[in-house]
Fold this protein.
Amino acid sequence: MNENFIITIATSLVAVFFGLLVAVLGWIGNKIYTSLENVSRGLRDMEKELMLKLTDMDRRITRIESVHHATMTIPKVK
């Protein structure tokens, strides 16, 4: 075999393996990105749910405070 032929085959193999490596890394990156999008969507849903619960709790506490202050009597000074 000719030396140039071996070098050509070797560089072609290196190029093919490099292309495969880039393809595999791109596929893995896409999977990671999709997973992170799912996590982000879940966290946004959780944030909305927590904000609704906090708003509801704040509303209830405000009602309790207003009822408590309305029924409070001022102590008489003797």
